[in-house]
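Why does residue order matter? Because the sequence determines the fold. Keep that principle in mind as you read this record.
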Amino acid sequence: MLKPGTRLKSAVCDAEIMVVRATDGDDLTCGGAAMSESSTKAEADPTKLHGCLIGKRYVNEANTVEVLCVKSGEGSVYYNGAELMTKDTKKLPSSD
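Structure:
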């Protein structure tokens, strides 16, 4: 089970994420391989190498899972087979 604050590493690239919000599932993958707290290596799926950028938050469509990219990498982050999308940033109020 995923817990907020858990740091996970990709097995196919340099990407690292921190879990911000999670549900009962724990199927987070990056580049087609399962993410874990250790740095084991695996073969990448070339169709899942869209990249993740440091400082960006990624969420699933239902907005039940949110992760923060703490180290950029070539792999894309997936949850239960669906690619996580970049979370929209909120506009700050004008200071006029």
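The mean pLDDT is 88.
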